[in-house]
Every structure is written in structure tokens, then in C-alpha cells.
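sry for the spam today, last one i promise. C-alpha cells for design, 220 residues
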């Protein structure tokens, strides 16, 4: 008698659907379909849709399932997250403004987040560009003792395009207790593919921390 292996059957169904549906997804820009095989027995996929509206509107789900070679399910590989996004972007030759509302709900772990953000990039003068951003995030986790978390942040970035230098400052209030943190950062483009950056978190507190990074990018 043949036995029905549910994990193996699911893997076969997902891989077959990826092969069949991928060409159709390319033909229809309103359909979101992004499958991925992250390991021999683990598959993930983002499915959803876009609506042709004034605001960029999309919704869908992130799905995932994994199993061992013996067919046992891997709990850490399971994903079932619902998401939705509303975004409006206005671009001119001298500026770019974007505002966004995003929500994510993890149906397996009982957690969720709501994000409201706004950003604006513009040419301030011949030698200076500016970036302004602010965000508000509300989170909920069923496993946590606190009912919800609240994070509010605001940042400014000064960019000197002719020298490749950027200065930034960010302030954030975390949780309902009102914990406040600040971060100062500087980055310098040394070569076309080489950047040097340094940051200092909470510079006026006793627990201040610093970070220096040298990054080299290789593209092929």
C-alpha cells in the first residue's frame, strides 16, 4: 500500500506550481508571485496582488514550509505572514517625497506591526542635498508580557555630492516608557567601490557605543 507523505507532497506541489505559474506572473504586472527554494527541502513564496490606484496598493502573504529528509516538518521554517501596503510617491527633477502605510501579521506566532513613514529628499543648494524622514511603528506580540510596543523616530541627512560625504543624525523614542536614543553618523566615499563610515550611538550617555566600518563593493 502506498503511504501519503504530506511534507513531500507539499514540496512537490509547490515546486510544480512555481514552474507553471512563473511565466504567467511575468505577463501580469498586477500579480505578485516570487517563489524561492532556500534549501533542498525548504520553500518560500511571496504571493499577492497590486491594484491600479493613485496610491501604490498591494497585499498578499509570505508563505514557507520546510522538512527534514525524513519528512518531518521544521517549525522554524514555517511562514504564514499576511501583509499590506499603501504608498504614495511624488518625484520631481529636484525632489522626491514618499509616504507609506504598511501592516504585517504573523498568523503562526501571533504578532503584528503597523508602520507609518514619510520621507523627503531634495536639493537644498548647489553643493548640498538633504534627506528628512520620520516613522511611527506599533508592534504587538502575543508571547510578550507587554501588550504593545511603540517606536517613533526622526532623522536628517546632509549629503555633499561633490565630495562624497554624508552626515546624519537620528533620534528615536522606543516603547511606551519613553526611552530615548540618538545616533550620529558620517560616511565618506573614498573610491568608486570603497566607503568608510562611522557612527556613535547615545554620545552624551555613559553607555555610548561606536562603530567604524570599511565597505568594499564588487559587482559582476
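last one done:
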Amino acid at each position: 500500500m502506498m503511504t501519503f507523505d504530506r511534507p513531500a507532497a507539499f514540496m512537490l506541489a509547490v515546486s510544480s506550481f512555481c514552474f507553471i505559474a512563473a511565466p504567467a506572473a511575468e505577463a501580469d504586472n498586477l500579480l505578485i508571485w516570487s517563489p524561492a527554494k532556500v534549501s533542498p527541502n525548504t520553500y518560500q513564496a511571496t504571493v499577492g496582488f497590486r491594484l491600479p490606484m493613485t496610491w501604490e496598493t498591494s497585499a498578499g502573504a509570505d508563505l514557507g514550509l520546510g522538512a527534514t529528509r525524513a519528512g518531518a516538518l521544521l517549525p522554524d521554517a514555517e511562514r504564514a505572514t499576511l501583509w499590506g501596503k499603501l504608498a504614495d510617491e511624488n518625484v520631481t527633477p529636484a525632489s522626491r517625497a514618499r509616504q507609506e502605510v504598511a501592516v504585517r501579521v504573523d498568523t503562526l506566532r501571533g504578532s503584528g506591526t503597523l508602520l507609518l513613514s514619510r520621507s523627503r529628499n531634495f536639493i537644498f543648494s548647489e553643493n548640498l542635498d538633504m534627506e528628512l524622514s520620520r516613522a511611527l511603528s506599533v508592534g504587538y506580540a502575543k508571547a510578550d508580557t507587554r501588550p504593545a510596543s511603540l517606536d517613533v523616530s526622526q532623522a536628517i541627512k546632509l549629503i555633499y555630492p561633490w565630495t562624497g560625504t554624508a552626515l546624519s543624525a537620528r533620534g528615536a523614542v522606543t516603547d511606551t516608557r519613553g526611552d530615548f536614543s540618538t545616533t550620529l553618523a558620517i560616511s565618506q566615499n573614498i573610491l568608486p567601490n570603497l566607503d568608510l563610515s562611522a557612527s556613535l550611538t547615545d554620545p552624551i550617555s555613559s553607555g555610548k557605543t561606536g562603530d567604524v566600518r570599511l565597505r568594499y563593493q564588487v559587482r559582476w
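The mean pLDDT is 85. ok im logging off now
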